[in-house]
Design a protein that fits this description.
- With 131 residues, the chain is an all-alpha fold.
- The chain is 82% helix and 0% strand.
- It contains four helices and no strands.
- α3 packs antiparallel against α4.
- The model has no long low-confidence stretch (mean pLDDT 93).
Length: 131
C-alpha cells in the first residue's frame, strides 16, 4: 500500500505552520482530557515547577526538571497514540495488541521512574536542609 503525501513547494507557509501547531495543541488537550495518567503527570509536573520556584533551583537543575517533565508527557502522549491506534486496528481482544499496549505503558513507567529519580536528586537535599 502506497502512502500519498501532499506535495509542498519547499517554502515555509506560516498558515500551514499555525495549523500544525493548532493540531498539536488539540492533540495534547485530548490526551490530558481523556487520560487519567496524563492528568496525574501534569499535576506532578505543576507541583515540581512550584517546588523549583520555591527552592530556587539552578539553571542546570531547571534543565533536568524540564527535560524530565517533557519526557514523561511525551511518553504518555506516545502511549495514548499507540492505544488509540491499536483500538482502531481491532476492537476485539488480541494478545499481540495487549502486548504492544503493555510495552508502551512500560516505556511510560521507565521515563516516569527516571523523572522521580531526577526529582529526588534535586529536591531531597534541599528538603533535608530545611530540617
Amino acid at each position: 500500500m502506497e502512502i500519498k503525501r501532499k506535495k509542498t513547494s519547499g517554502s515555509i507557509s506560516v498558515k500551514r505552520l499555525v495549523k500544525s501547531f493548532g493540531y498539536a495543541v488539540g492533540g495534547l488537550r485530548q490526551v490530558v482530557c481523556q487520560e487519567q495518567n496524563a492528568r496525574v503527570h501534569l499535576l506532578v509536573a505543576l507541583c515540581t515547577v512550584v517546588a523549583g520556584c520555591c527552592f530556587r533551583i539552578s539553571a542546570t537543575e531547571w534543565i533536568a526538571v524540564l527535560l524530565a517533565i517533557g519526557g514523561v508527557m511525551a511518553a504518555e502522549t506516545f502511549n495514548t497514540s499507540i492505544e488509540a491506534l491499536s483500538d482502531t486496528v481491532s476492537s476485539k481482544y488480541s494478545e499481540n495488541i495487549k502486548q504492544v499496549k503493555d510495552f508502551a505503558a512500560g516505556a511510560v513507567l521507565i521515563v516516569a521512574l527516571a523523572a522521580v529519580i531526577v526529582g529526588l536528586i534535586i529536591f531531597l537535599p534541599k528538603i533535608i536542609a530545611l530540617f
